[in-house]
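Example complex used in Figure S2.
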Amino acid sequence: MTFPLLNRREAVAELLIDRGDLIVTTGLGSPSYDVMAAGDHDRNYYLWAAMGSAATVGLGLAMSRPQDPVLVVTGDGEMLMGMGALATIAVQAPKNLTIAVLDNGHYGETGMQRSHAGHGIGLEKVAQSVNFDWTARITDLAGVCDLRARVHAKNALSFAAITIDVTEEDRVLPSRDGVYIKNRVRAALGQQVF
Amino acid sequence: MQQTPLQNGQSIDWKAQVYEVLKDFDVKHAAYVPDAGHATAIERFNADEAVHSVVLTTEEEGIGYLAGAWLGGERGVLLLQSSGVGNCINTLALQVCARFPLLMVVTMRGDWAEFNQWQNPMGQATEAALNLMGVRTWRAEKAEEVEGLLRGAATMAFEGDQACAVLLSQQLIGKKLWNQVQ
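Predicted assembly (376 residues):
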């Protein structure tokens, strides 16, 4: 018996309902478009390059904003490039940080070549092995809904690999002006803008 | 070995100055891949409850980390060895495009009295590689140069949203002794 796989846009939209104080940082490619499609927000920081850095940007935010929930939304390929960062993050273990990997097992931006995740490597097991407080493989919307509650609870360093289908959605492009997005986030967080 | 004697008999503890200058600039995050030349600063940061000491598996993690910390309103520094500069190259695009303050303190290998020739290729390309990616560089050869160069670099980074690196040369750090346990 098989169930239909989650659609990435529906999963991300579900994850970002009632986001409140949530700060979101995204990995380059489709995760950035998915978060943008769910609604642009002053507390979104979209990456367009520096592949492998979504999780470390999220760590820096979580450490400097312990009062806010921080969510990293990235893909399996981007997370694979920053796999060592999972160890770095686990050593710091901020309770307000959640990493959500949209895992279709492929590099969608470059022509759907199969990734290591698509070859059977479970990123949630990697996070578990480096001692994240909570890890899971999510395959349905109920699981995403549960993850959303965990994001806002801020009581555990969390990692979820969300299995999604390989459907390519229309691109919904956030601003590519990194300075603008940076200043927008900083202003939203009450920081001085240069 | 820790201190460089001056003619007046006093000495400059440049290793402690690295920590002290960074504290003067209100650094709250010290991200690092360990190096013997940074051992004093790392030790001091680790003992400092006002600073998050973040040990990295590879140096480019520090660029993302410090970008995130700055989005959250706090300053940080990246301590690394010249070999680690090579690991940072692509990720430096994040600083160029987002223009956040990036302060790097780089201990050099392969530029003087280097025993291990495998350190030479990256060590000798470090400054040019940083410059190619838009990072300003200053090289400290003597103990009395460290504090001033670091203050200048920190000023340009934190007041001007620049990427700045101070290179601590092997002449400053001292020849690595290979025939004894460190």
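Chain B touches chain A at residues 28-29, 52, 54-58, 60-74, 76, 90-91, 93-94, 97-100, 161 (CB under 8 Å). Helices of chain B lie at 14-24, 39-46, 60-71, 82-88, 92-98, 120-132, 143-160, 170-173.
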